[in-house]
Design a protein that fits this description.
2 domains; 2 helices; 86 residues; mainly alpha
Length: 86
């Protein structure tokens, strides 16, 4: 009985560490994403200096970024599924 409780404690600690690491990595990814967002917005201003924060340019940017993220997500999911099958 005591051995079972200790094993459950170890498993719980391991799960907490894994979740915490996942949240930290997600937060760092968000920070990197925000930095890239600012960089890309600056690049748009270089290529479209007279747009003046035009809504159409922002929607185009959002559409392109969304499309890229969807394609990368599909690729990563397929890659992960292939690794799990092996």
């Amino acid at each position: 009985m005591l051995g079972k409780i200790k094993e459950e404690q170890k498993q719980l600690r391991r799960e907490v560490k894994e979740k915490t690491l996942g949240y930290i990595l997600a937060a760092l990814g968000l920070v990197a994403g925000l930095a890239w967002n600012e960089a890309i917005k600056g690049l748009i201003e270089v290529f479209f200096p007279n747009a003046g924060g035009s809504v159409s340019i922002k929607f185009l940017y959002a559409f392109v970024i969304t499309t890229i993220i969807v394609i990368v997500s599909i690729y990563l999911l397929r890659w992960t599924e292939k690794k799990e099958e092996k």
